[in-house]
Amino acid sequence: MILLGIHAFFLSILIAFLKKRYENTPLGSYWYYFVFLKIIAGLGVGLLYLHAYHRGGDTWLYYEQGSLLADVIYKSPLLYTQIVCFDTYSPDVMLPWEQPRALFFVKLVSLFNLLTQNNYWLMSIYFSLFSAWAMWYFANNWALLFPTHKMVIVASFLAIPSVIVWSSGLQKESLAWTFIGFWGAYSLRYASNKSNIYTLFGVSLVCSYGLWVLKFYYLIGILFFIFVFFVLLYGQKATLQIRILMFFVLLSALVVEVFWLRFHTGWIYAIIDNHNSSYHFSLPNTAIQYYKYTPYGFYALHPHYSSWLPNIPLALFSGLFRPLPYEAYGTLALLASLENTLLICYFVFWIFFAKKHVYHFPLQFSLLAYCLLLATVLALASPNYGSLVRYKIVWLPLAWYGLLSSSSIYFFKKSCKYRD
Known about the structure:
Blueprint: H1 2-21, H2 31-52, H3 57-75, H4 77-86, H5 100-116, H6 120-145, H7 150-157, H8 161-166, H9 172-191, H10 197-214, H11 216-233, H12 240-264, H13 267-280, H14 305-308, H15 312-321, H16 331-358, H17 362-381, H18 385-391, H19 396-419
């Protein structure tokens, strides 16, 4: 009880301090709402997997593995340090040694096991708080840079149910959004001359390394966004046709890079291996059924381009909009499908009425390119609908922002025409 009281006092002071520090900022009034919503969502995720899934799911698995690693420090502080700092193998500690991303997360979780004396609920609150801080800080700096988009930013970053839930608690997605949020926030601060290049460089270095180790798809998507944005930014004086041509040149360059990496690194193998592992542990009605175009006779996808390349259109659609209501099995899947239905309806409206406005704004155009790339890659790597719903939260707020902000031009013009 004493430990619980100490942590409750510290967390209360930290939350109040952050509220006071950012009180006069555009989204200062949303701080308490968002952080408490995230904390409740994180606790809810823990309760869901504890009771509905009988302590199953990654969140409890990581907690238990982190607890095993934390116990090592009491027996051999040197061995604990070697494992955490140098990945030193020990057959006496049952950890995911063959999964570098999971091992990285478990090592970080073990620090919170030590800090909270293996209290899962306190650990969940800490992860939710850091994720909420990063997401809110990112959104707040965005609103500082684009004050006319304040309500669009609130709707996109602070109000999407699936994003709030699956980026909270003891989950890898919480940590991923912590890295993405702070990296994005300090990039925006630098763009508005509120931070220096050295601070941005340090934050970028830490966050990019964390994303690369945690889930490298996210880092590839962000680097692609940065590349597209700067090319379009410096090409603003070009005509619309030239900018569209530049985008497809960049897309072609990415495809060429993918083929080059196919023969020089193992990340294509990693994506296909993740797909096959996820697919084999999924029920047929809970996973994307890709076409098995391959001369090798495999019943799963194969790293050869003839296997995965023809499936990119299906992966793109599935990554963006599935599961749909008729594919939903269970309450969580149904809720996710309703959110996807709203997205697909608004996307259809955007295609017919508002898409022409996005070409004039490099930021929105680059964000949508980032979302399309990540949606495709994540759907290929994880065909299971449940996993896909969790993974898509790293691009979903940015997709909604890109759609809503570019649509606002359309609505503004309509309102002006109505007043005239």
